[in-house]
Amino acid sequence: MDHAEAVPIAEMVDERRYLLDVAYRMLGSAHEAEEVVDETYRRWYGLSDVARAGITAPRSWLTKTAREICLGRLTRPDCGDEATGTAESDKPSQASEHPGGMSQEAQIRRVLLNVLDSLSPAERAAFVLDDVVGMTPGKVADTVGRTEPSEGAELARWARHRQRLQYSRPTTPQQHDAVARAVRQACVHEDAGHLASLLSPDVTAFFDGGGKVRALVRPVHGSRQVAHSLLALLACRPRTSLTAQSVNGRTGLVVRYDDQVAAVISLGITDHHVEQVWAVLNPDKLRSWNQPANPTPDSDTTV
């Protein structure tokens, strides 16, 4: 995907809300509506890049697909997940939500996240599973929630690169905070030139939509490309705000649409420049940010 295809946060959140409303009106169940919308986006990402690029009105395509899935459920009410074409074995595991029933892979991932604090969650897992455990790229990608083996290999490669950079040029919390807040200012003022100057020439940005929103599906490389992707994602729209607050122990960026946290962005900063951007857009991973007692700016929350 090209950076020009980045979808603004406001459009992304509105689109998912709209699809949930469509499914709920047809099925009368919030739980089933969530399942239908998830399946709708699975079908969207099941298309080839060329096929997606050829769809001139993505929301119309998604709406039509959601309605078709709902009709399938209404005409085959006893088939459960067969109506969405999803087998029981294909359902995402819920073990991580129940500590007593946590899978072995989830337990491994939790340990990794507590050890490699300087990396984003998926990077930490990919780094250790690839370098220490020796998992294949496909297994690494599956464990860290990626669909393509190349994405797991990319995460591990970038994690190794960041480890080398941090050992050679460590960044203090104060330096990190200053750069992160400068990035926020550049985004708020939509200053592409200044934003690009704060990024390393070989910066990489990851957009974790989890297949549940219309986000970029591949990493974006290079200061100009990443700057344009971020500005497209954070495009100033009514009811959208961008704040700097603690994420995973260091200053990051939090995007809110209305009162809902729609994105959490972690920044890997070395030698006064951003080397890595990790944008979490997956609604499931943002649930803790949208609990009744939301963190205040500068409080710490982990994603």
Automatic annotation (TrEMBL):
Residues 16-75 form the RNA polymerase sigma-70 region domain. Gene3D superfamilies: 1.10.1740.10. GO terms for molecular function: sigma factor activity. Residues 75-104 are annotated as: Disordered. One of its GO terms (biological process) is DNA-templated transcription initiation. Pfam families: Sigma70_r2. Signal peptide: none annotated. PANTHER family: ECF RNA POLYMERASE SIGMA FACTOR SIGI-RELATED, SIGMA 19 FACTOR. This is RNA polymerase sigma factor. It comes from Streptomyces brasiliensis.
